[in-house]
Automatic annotation (TrEMBL):
Gene3D superfamilies: NAD(P)-binding Rossmann-like Domain. SUPFAM superfamilies: NAD(P)-binding Rossmann-fold domains (SSF51735). One of its GO terms (molecular function) is oxidoreductase activity. It holds the Pfam family adh_short. Keywords: Membrane, Oxidoreductase, Transmembrane, Transmembrane helix. The chain crosses the membrane at residues 33-51. It comes from the Eukaryota. This is Retinol dehydrogenase 11-like.
Length: 362
């Protein structure tokens, strides 16, 4: 009888487990959302309340307005990474961790126990980031890295190689968007140099130090803007076609996706996996060349994702994503890059061209 009871309770537990799990995940996802949105929701609810009370729209009940604010914010927030994976003992190299999305990713990984090596162009800012991460009990180290200089990328990579680091992950998050035309000291256009070529060189230099340690991952950060991109093979410096800030950004992000696709193919059957994460539109200083500071710091946060929300897909790629499903992720699930970004011939051609531009050609 005792045996029978045990069998039955086991069976019941097994039957209930999936629904218990999905209920738990459901509440965790809403918990994460409400926590991330606390400030936005408070401000928006108050604004709606004041508008309704003093100015207009008396016809509908207040809670209906609040409900629509909640639904819109939940839609904007996108997916949340629900993974429990710990990263104790993992060394993660991150670029762009001193602000916006990169800083939030660094916080997520610090909380999971990873040792973080931040590649920062501004060491004063990096010290502040280090303090913030250490307050979360993170283990952090900062090193100078200016991705617009191939020399700086080489020095940074060699520093890690000489230190004989066992690198488990490389997160290429740093980026520039729509800056005025500028050529780097290496004679490269700034957005292509920072967003693609600097990371291309860094990845290739660190690759041999990643392969021995499973599970190793390289995560590059894309943007939906890649859809509007073309690789300017014959005119990387926009001398003939003329410079468009937007086009140059899109082109650099298409290069990021093609680079990751080829990287994932090159790394097939090794211990290293390559992912491209699209964080979605988020409030951040990325818009510094496009919008006034007050707008990108205080206003657009109500309309788009917070950096913490945008960090979720990158965290998902660092912890959960599976290479055999896809290399491109968006909203914490498998996503769809443009047709051009899936063109293998183009990816190979870009790889060869990038090798020439950064001086890796054999
Ligand atoms: N925000 C969005 O809506 C959005 C949408 C799609 C994709 N993304 C991508 O997400 C990534 C992070 O962007 P974000 O929104 O978090 O922007 P952000 O707040 O401006 O962060 C960019 C980071 O990159 C660093 N960086 C820029 N140029 C560098 C260089 N030459 N050398 C080293 N580091 C450099 C910046 O350093 P400093 O702190 O010193 O300035 C900063 O830490 C970017 O790749 C961006 O293209 C963003």
């Amino acid at each position: 009888m005792g045996h029978l009871e045990k069998m039955t309770s086991k069976k019941i537990m097994r039957m209930l487990h999936p629904s218990y799990l999905s209920l738990r995940l459901f509440f965790r996802s809403w918990g994460q959302f409400l926590w991330a949105e606390l400030y936005n929701l408070l401000v928006l609810f108050t604004a709606v309340y004041l508008l309704q009370r003093y100015f207009m729209f008396h016809k509908l009940r207040l809670w209906l307005y609040w409900l629509s604010v909640l639904v819109v914010r939940k839609f904007m927030a996108g997916g949340f990474c629900r993974s429990d994976v710990r990263l104790n003992g993992c060394t993660v190299v991150i670029t762009g961790a001193d602000s916006g999305i990169g800083k939030e990713v660094a916080k997520e990984l610090a909380l999971r126990g990873a040792h973080l090596v931040l590649g920062s162009r501004d060491l004063v800012k990096a010290e502040q980031t280090k303090k913030e991460l250490e307050n979360l009990k993170g283990s952090v180290e900062i090193r100078h890295l200016d991705l617009s200089s191939l020399e700086s990328v080489r020095t940074f990579a060699n520093g890690l190689i000489n230190h004989k680091y066992h690198i488990h992950m490389l997160l290429n998050i740093a980026g520039e968007m729509m800056c005025p035309y500028k050529e780097t000291a290496d004679g490269l256009e700034e957005q292509m140099a920072v967003n693609h070529l600097g990371h291309f060189l860094l990845t290739n230099m660190l690759l041999p130090w990643l392969t021995h340690h499973k599970p190793a991952r390289i995560i590059n950060v894309a943007a939906t803007a890649h859809i509007d991109g073309r690789i300017p093979f014959s005119d990387f410096n926009y001398k003939q076609q003329g410079y468009s800030k937007w086009k140059a950004y899109c082109n650099s992000k298409l290069a990021t996706v093609l680079f990751t696709r080829q990287l994932a193919r090159n790394l097939k059957d090794t211990n290293v996996e390559a992912f491209c994460a699209n964080p979605g539109v988020s409030q951040s200083a990325l818009y510094r060349h496009v919008l006034p500071e007050f707008v990108y710091k205080h206003i657009i946060g109500f309309l788009v994702q917070t950096p913490r929300e945008a960090a979720q897909t990158i965290t998902y790629c660092a912890t959960e994503a599976k290479q055999d499903v896809n290399f491109y992720y968006s909203e914490c699930s498998s996503g769809w890059p443009s047709d051009e970004a899936m063109d293998d011939d183009l990816a190979q051609r870009l790889w060869r061209e990038s090798e020439k531009l950064v001086g890796l050609e054999k």
